[in-house]
Design a protein that fits this description.
9 helices; alpha/beta; about 240 residues; 2 domains
């Protein structure tokens, strides 16, 4: 059987699913990721969750075509509701906004009692997600940022612990590990964001009534971004 092909971002996320995992992939997109994992790990099992009937049927067709119906169960449901009484150890949510991923986790919090690892790939607003993870005793143990087809994606791996990670607001905003590594994709993203934030601030200044709370938030974000980029530029000039 030919191996299923994954995008770089999904393969990056899949590589953090531990050997022998029983995981739920929420919003499974044709079940490509569960199929990939179960092909390379004969001990893995998965639930592929889809919200609507059409995507569910497409996922079932793919799972059947790859002869993995004994290890991948495709289910229709909203968010974590597809998890029933099983002791799932990993939850995977990729390709959604950080706010939506956070909402799915919050609404399905009762389904996370056995979960030891979250593999998350927010398309935007990842800081909302990091703040929730810290509150819920999930420590960010790995982060990756990558560029694919002109888009920049972040992958966040969080493991359940017994204490808070106690991230600062700045670490939540940039990613505690990403802001240490500062790879080329990270720098490209935040140089772009610096321009966007500056434009937003100028737009707010032109308004008839200035929303000072919003202005303060964007000014803080701009200051942090300048600090992160300035530190990198200074370190580059040392060589």
């Amino acid at each position: 059987m030919e191996a299923v092909k994954l995008s770089h971002r999904l393969k990056t996320a899949a590589n953090y699913i531990q050997s022998g995992a029983f995981f739920a992939d929420i919003g499974s997109d044709h079940a490509y990721l569960p199929i990939y994992v179960c092909q390379i790990d004969q001990t893995a099992r998965a639930i592929a969750g889809e919200l609507n009937e059409g995507p569910k049927q497409a996922a079932q067709s793919h799972v059947s075509g790859y002869q993995l119906t004994d290890r991948i169960d495709v289910r229709k449901g909203d968010g974590l509701s597809v998890i029933r009484e099983e002791a799932i150890d990993t939850v995977v949510i990729c390709g959604m906004g950080g706010g939506l991923i956070r909402s799915i986790l919050e609404n399905g919090e009762g389904k996370l009692s056995s979960v030891k690892r979250l593999v998350l790939q927010p398309n935007m607003d990842s800081h909302y997600l990091r703040a929730w993870l810290d509150d819920q005793y999930f420590h960010i143990t790995a982060e990756e940022i990558l560029e694919e087809d002109g888009h920049i994606y972040e992958v966040i791996i969080a493991d359940k612990k017994t204490t808070h990670q106690q991230m600062t607001d700045k670490q939540c905003y940039f990613g505690p590990l990403l802001m240490q590594e500062k790879n080329s994709a990270f720098l490209a993203k935040w140089r772009r964001e610096q321009e966007n934030i500056s434009r937003i601030i100028e737009g707010l200044k032109k308004g008839k009534q200035i929303d000072q709370t919003k202005m303060d938030q964007f000014n803080q974000a701009l200051q942090w971004t300048k600090e992160v980029l300035t530190n990198e530029d200074n370190s580059s000039n040392d060589y």
